[in-house]
Amino acid sequence: MIAETIPDSRAEASRPKPTLLIVDDEEGPRLSLRVVFKDDYEILLAENGLQAVELARNHGIDAVISDIRMAGMSGIELLGKLKEVDPDIEVIMLTAYETIETARQALRFGACDYLNKPFELGTIRAAVANAVERRAISNEMRLNNVKLAELQTQLENQKLQENVSESRGEIYASIIHDINGPLTIISNFIHLINQRIADAKTVDGEALEMVKDRLKRMTRQVTNCIEISQRYLSFMRQRSAESARVNVNQVLADLEELLHAHPSTEKHELVIYPLPRDATLPINGTDLIQILLNLSINAFQASQQPHQVKICGTIFDNAFLITQIKDGPTDATLNRSGFKNTGSILQLRVQDTGPGIPPALIAKIFEPYFTTKPAGKGTGLGLSIVQRLLKEAHGLLHLHSVVGEGTTFDIYLPLLMTEAQ
Questions:
Q1: Which residues contact 223 (CB under 8 A, 6 or more apart)?
Q2: Which of 124-128, 142-146, 313-317, 387-391 has the lowest mean pLDDT?
Q3: If we measure between CA atoms, which residue out of 284, 147, 153, 155 comes closest to residue 226?
Q4: What pTM does this model have?
Q5: How are strands ordered across the β-sheet holding 308-316?
Q6: At what angle do helices 205-236 and 285-300 cross, to 10 degrees?
Q7: Which of 1, 124, 169, 203 is most buried (most C-beta within 10 Å)?
Q8: Is 21 left (phi over 0), alpha (psi -120 to 50) or beta?
Q9: What one-character-per-residue DSSP string does 155-179 give?
Q10: Helix segments in 237-262, DSSP class H
């Protein structure tokens, strides 16, 4: 029997299904498993180890289900060959003749799971889903490593222009400041994992699910660090991301996850309202996250006393009257002349019930390195970074703060489009 590919016309071209290879020298099990998984995966079939290895060389395979006892090349031998082709390929071994030594061999050679025949459908579905998820995480980590290597090469070869070189120290400090957020979250996740499994000899059940969830979130934060580095490299080269765009509600959902994991939010209340109808902004998603993250963390760190930080948004479909925004002892406006006030405008509000900002400090808080925090507790760069990112996005910021009542930051950004509910 030749290797067989089962296409699925319902697969989305923009997001292909994961590919599952089924290897068994008996036709019945091969076809049965194809029926079970054909709706969820692109299926490849092979009747022996040689065919399976050839398919692995010529296709991007995410997971493999293989019988252990097969004529010619055994499942254990095939496992080793597949790992030579692709070390990250995930393999599930099946057998009707379980022995402890066989199981040990399979796991030693890198099998991600080992199931006995006959098996329950729920069990094998869960095993394949877990294998595909592990593969996806491996792919993302590999891609991150490639991007990090590219960034390192680009940074080593980058010759900054003289006007940029003069502010090199501030740029480097800004990079460290922005990356510190994701690193703090990664550190917090590692601490939670250590607390949960420090004395455990095995990890399964709820503990295993918690570890898997935190590892996925940590991977996303590594991706954020890379994107932040790429954005600063573009800034140093004075390249603008003209084609950048981001959906606001996705940013708000990501922001909520980040803030809940950040130690600054402990003992305080966070409230985030998604937009009633989503909106798309012509801004890099990492930049918008950094703007909102810096404002939110500053709001939480305004006082040790428990208080609320609320984030919400409003869409202005008609002409926005910038003249309505006034400056004064309790108000300040940034980038009024650079604001692109055309078409629809989105207002994003970060509001806290903290102690408020004294009028004498309102004009100073956006200066680089200015901070009211104790030595070692703040860099004074968060709000100056917000100012730079908003200027690049042609946005406007209005600050209103009253001592004893709290502080409100309103960000105004030009919309690319809006979507109906």
A1: 140, 144
A2: 142-146
A3: 147
A4: 0.49
A5: 269-272, 308-316, 345-352, 406-414, 396-402, 331-334
A6: 110
A7: 124
A8: beta
A9: HHH----HHHHTTHHHHHHHHHHHH
A10: 248-261
